[in-house]
Design brief:
Elements lengths: L2 H17 L10 H12 L4 E5 L5 H8 L3 E6 L2 H14 L5 E5 L13 E7 L8 H14 E12 L10 E4 L2 E4 L2 E4 L3 H7 L4 E10 L4 E9 L3
The structure holds S-adenosylmethionine.
S-adenosylmethionine binds next to helix 1.
Keywords: Methyltransferase, Transferase
GO molecular function: methyltransferase activity
Protein name: Class I SAM-dependent methyltransferase
Length: 218
């Protein structure tokens, strides 16, 4: 994939959120509900969400009392999130940061208890960028902390169709997706404890996704 695709996707997502405020709705996703149970059982307090969008999931974590840091590269989405957090009275539990995950996460080593990323790792990121991101997640997690991520995989109806950008990235309707195979999931779990890979569906296509849970060894 080219650097231009990453820049084009940044522009695309910003205009999509401007045209479709709160496009993912107000209810937390099923993976976020699952993650909240896992994080609570592990005694987590500080949770990082990558690719939070307008924050349907970050808001649910904040409502449950977690201290949430929400990252996304769309300022528009994060503004929608901040407005809703004020309306819901959970601003004290939430910090937003405009950040492109192709750069290092702006947090110290071992500073968060849990990391959640719903449909972020499968964005327009090269395999090398995904590996660098997961290594950086490992850096910011405390030992024993858990990463829960979801990705569209090669069983998805859109895999292998649309505009091919190489590296298993295909674009439909302006949205570029890096479809995962099981070899990539396994490679990303090196130096982690892989706890679960769960297949599920979301939306009308439906999107076919894996929910992956892996823990940083103590
Ligand atoms: C499929 S949406 C999912 C949003 C949110 N997780 C949800 O499920 O409601 C992917 C999100 O990732 C963000 N994103 C895509 N590429 C990114 C990047 N390189 N750095 C940071 N955020 C990115 C987009 O702005 C968008 O909000």
């Amino acid at each position: 994939m080219t650097a231009d695709l990453g820049q084009a996707q940044h522009t695309h997502w910003q205009s999509v959120y401007q045209a479709n405020p709160h496009m993912y709705g107000d209810q937390p996703s099923e993976p976020a509900q699952y993650a909240a149970e896992v994080f609570a059982a592990e005694g987590a307090t500080g949770v990082l969400e990558l690719g939070a969008g307008h924050g349907r999931d970050s808001l649910s974590f904040a409502r449950r009392g977690f201290s949430v840091r929400a990252l996304d590269f769309s300022p528009e989405a994060l503004e929608q999130l901040r407005v809703r957090a004020r309306q819901d009275g959970v601003s004290d539990h939430l910090t937003t940061t405009v950040h492109d995950v192709r750069a290092p996460i702006p947090l110290p080593d071992g500073s968060v208890d849990g990391v959640f990323a719903h449909m972020l790792l499968c964005m327009a990121l090269s395999t090398a960028e995904i590996h660098a991101l997961v290594a950086d997640v490992r850096r910011v997690l405390r030992p024993g902390g858990t990463l829960i991520y979801t990705v569209r995989y090669t069983g998805d109806a859109h895999y292998g169709t649309g505009i091919a950008h190489g590296d298993d990235i295909y674009e439909h309707g302006g949205f570029a997706v890096h479809f995962f195979d099981s070899a990539l999931v396994d490679a990303l779990a090196q130096q982690w404890e892989l706890r679960e890979v769960h297949a599920f569906e979301e939306g009308e296509l439906p999107r076919r996704l894996w929910r992956v849970r892996q823990t940083k060894p103590r």
